[in-house]
Specification:
By secondary structure, this protein is α/β, with parallel strands linked by helices. It has one domain (3-189): 2-enoyl-CoA Hydratase, Chain A, domain 1 (Alpha-Beta Complex), CATH 3.90.226. Helix content is 44%, strand content 18%. It is built from 8 helices and 9 strands. The protein has helices at 21-36, 58-61, 66-84, 101-107, 134-143, 146-155, 161-166, 179-189; strands spanning 6-10, 42-46, 51-53, 90-94, 97-99, 111-115, 120-122, 159-160, 172-174. The strands form 2 sheets. Strands 1-2-4-6-9 form a 5-stranded parallel beta sheet, with helices on both faces. Strands 3-5-7-8 form a 4-stranded mixed beta sheet. Helix 1 (21-36) links the parallel strand 1 (6-10) and strand 2. Helix 1 (21-36) runs parallel beside helix 3. The radius of gyration is 16 Å and the shape is globular.
């Protein structure tokens, strides 16, 4: 598959690729543009440096009103729902930590490849007294057996790539140096 038929959506915001309103808008707009481009056959979403995404930007939310936060949550659920039903293969290349909201986005993808080493993945909201959004819970249950989904949701555990693969939370573990090449190879098979 020629490189021109691949779309890349790269999360690139501060050190942790934390999710804010503007980041959600950028991701949505980029995915829509890639979906409408008939030359693009598949899309890879990845992060930068050591983070795919560490989830919601908690510091940013301190200034939000209740209505602003409600609006953010609605936008976030619309985004992962859109990703889950995306019309082209959507591959998550998990280059680093994929936590909370970042993990919810990765669950919405068709295939998840994660680097081994220090990278971790988790739906650890329970440790913060927060909830995992209902749509994300259902996407998790579609991907993994019920016993594993309960362990992932209710333990608050943070999993290594190998542990996540055993739980079916991700599909494949790869070295950081081979992530791009392997992800493009996966798309060629789809």
């Amino acid at each position: 598959m020629p490189a021109s038929s691949l779309g890349l959506n790269n999360l690139n915001r501060n050190k942790t690729n934390a999710l804010t309103n503007s980041v959600l808008e950028e991701i949505s707009e980029s995915l829509l543009n890639l979906e409408n481009n008939h030359h693009i056959k598949s899309v890879i979403i990845t992060g930068t440096d050591k983070f795919f995404s560490y989830g919601f930007d908690i510091n940013d939310f301190l200034s939000y009103s209740k209505e602003d936060f409600k609006y953010f949550v609605i936008k976030f659920t619309e985004l992962y729902t859109y990703m889950f039903g995306y019309s082209k293969p959507l591959i998550a290349a998990l280059n680093g930590h994929t936590i909370a909201g970042g993990c919810m986005l990765d669950l919405a993808c068709d295939y998840r490849v994660m680097v081994y080493g220090k990278a971790k993945v988790s739906l650890n909201e329970i440790n913060l007294g927060a909830t995992v959004l209902a749509g994300s819970t259902e996407m998790l249950r579609v991907l993994v057996e019920n016993k594993n989904s309960s362990k992932i949701l209710y333990s608050g555990a943070i999993f290594s790539a190998d542990e996540a693969e055993t739980l079916d939370l991700i599909d494949e573990v790869i070295s950081y140096d081979n992530l791009s090449r392997a992800t493009v190879g996966i798309i060629k098979l789809r």
